[in-house]
TrEMBL record:
The modification N6-(pyridoxal phosphate)lysine is found at residue 53. The lineage of its organism: Bacteria, Pseudomonadati, Pseudomonadota, Alphaproteobacteria, Hyphomicrobiales. Residues 31-273 form the Orn/DAP/Arg decarboxylase 2 N-terminal domain. GO terms for molecular function: diaminopimelate decarboxylase activity. This is Diaminopimelate decarboxylase. InterPro entries: Ala_racemase/Decarboxylase_C, De-COase2_C, De-COase2_N, Orn/DAP/Arg_de-COase, Orn_de-COase, PLP-binding_barrel.
Length: 404
């Protein structure tokens, strides 16, 4: 799987030359190839859902729909987004905290096939709404393991977080669920870690979660139809060419699967991250207190991921020879450079003190691996700056915005 690196020629052909460039560029063909590769690595009987939170653009959803089992959503808005983009045939499963009665009503109205319950309150709300609608809603109980759980950039369980039902309270949750006639227990949900780069360790964690689910099913006389093992397949922003070993993960997990219990995964970052770039033009260069800064047409209001994760995002500088001003062209060469955006806050930084050969006003900075948790998590209208162009390429052409 290759990393999308738009060329100077591509950027020039796709963007206008009469203003500083600021654009996300997505390669939908590579995205689809990558999705097929991830799905094909899974053992027989395992299903791969795309986690919509990573990138919910309709063009991304439509591109992925033929290649994944369905879509995992975390809000009523994401349910509507999937239905509008893909249609009634798309399978949808729903998780996430802080569920409301309105969420459950939307879920039922749009044919979502399963809800992942994160608390007893959510269970009771779901039962009340489903019962009033005359429906039976399939559910999984999301488990927050006792932990600790090592090996991930983000820990969703195995620690004091707001996610899931703590392991010690699962017996109580099962007892409450038995008194909810409009809910049908189908299994357990484990989304314990996010961005785990250790394929063998992640397989061992998933195997332990499967074993725990089976012990509970046997102890409480439950029909264990399904275990959702979440996502957590990692990417490495410090090394854009590194890849999670999905084949090794699947091979190590396969002996722990059986025909009686289906297994599902819901991955987002590893699907969408690699196939987009965020391109910003350098509009100013300056020094302050011994440090060099490049100021960009863009920033964290478009691409919050580097700030959110407190990392230096990988980038390349594309030289651009055009210079139409009467004054000398400023440049910085052979020294560390900090890439800052256009916001009035010192936190608007995308990379800090990175050595560069040369950067000039008018050159473009191409931030790689910008397809997941970038635009979708950003505060777009802070200071009311112009939004970037968002260009989706398929078969060598831009997918028109109006078809989104």
């Amino acid at each position: 799987m290759t990393l999308f690196r738009p060329t100077i020629e591509q950027i020039a052909a796709l963007t206008r030359d009469d203003r500083p460039v600021c654009a996300f560029v997505y390669d939908l063909d590579a995205l689809m190839d990558h999705a097929r590769s991830l799905v094909s690595a899974l053992p027989r009987g395992a299903e791969f859902f795309y986690a919509v939170k990573a990138n919910n653009d309709p063009r991304v959803l439509r591109a992925l729909a033929p290649h994944v089992a369905g879509f995992e959503v975390a809000s009523a808005g994401e349910i509507r987004r999937v239905r509008a983009a893909v249609g009634l045939s798309a399978r949808i499963i729903m998780g996430g905290p802080a569920r409301t009665g309105s969420d459950i009503a939307t879920l039922l109205a749009h044919g979502v096939e399963r809800l992942h319950l994160e608390s007893l309150q959510a269970m009771r709300i779901a039962n009340a709404v489903a019962e009033a609608a005359g429906a039976i809603l399939p559910v999984l109980l999301r488990v927050n393991l006792a932990g600790p759980v090592p090996g991930a950039t983000l820990t969703m369980g195995g620690a004091a977080t707001q996610f899931g039902i703590e392991e010690a309270a699962i017996p109580d949750a099962i007892a409450v669920l038995r008194d909810c006639p409009a809910l049908r227990f189908e299994g357990f949900h484990f989304h314990t870690v996010s961005n785990n780069r250790d394929a063998a360790g992640h397989a061992a964690l998933c195997a332990a979660e499967l074993a725990l689910a089976r012990r509970w099913a046997e102890a409480y006389g439950l029909d264990l139809r399904l275990v959702n093992l979440g996502g957590g397949w990692g990417v490495d922003y410090a090394d854009p060419d590194w890849r999670f070993d999905a084949d090794a993960f699947a091979r190590l997990l396969a002996p722990h699967l059986d025909a009686r219990t289906r297994v599902q995964f819901e991955c987002g970052r590893i699907v969408a991250a690699y196939h987009a770039a965020y391109v910003c033009e350098i509009v100013d260069l300056k020094r302050a207190h011994g440090r060099a800064f490049a100021l960009l047409r863009g920033g964290t209001h478009h691409f919050r991921l580097p700030n959110s994760w407190a990392h230096d995002h990988p980038f390349a500088i594309q030289p651009r020879e055009a210079w139409h001003n009467d004054w000398p062209r400023p440049e910085i060469a052979g020294e560390p450079l900090t890439l800052a955006g256009e916001l009035c806050t010192p936190k608007d930084i995308l990379a800090r003190d990175i050595p560069v050969e040369r950067a000039r006003i008018g050159d473009r900075v191409v931030f790689l691996m910008a397809g997941a948790y970038g635009w979708d998590i950003s505060h777009h209208d802070f200071l009311c700056h112009a939004h970037p162009e968002r260009l989706f390429l398929a078969d060598g052409a831009v997918v028109p915005e109006q078809s989104a």
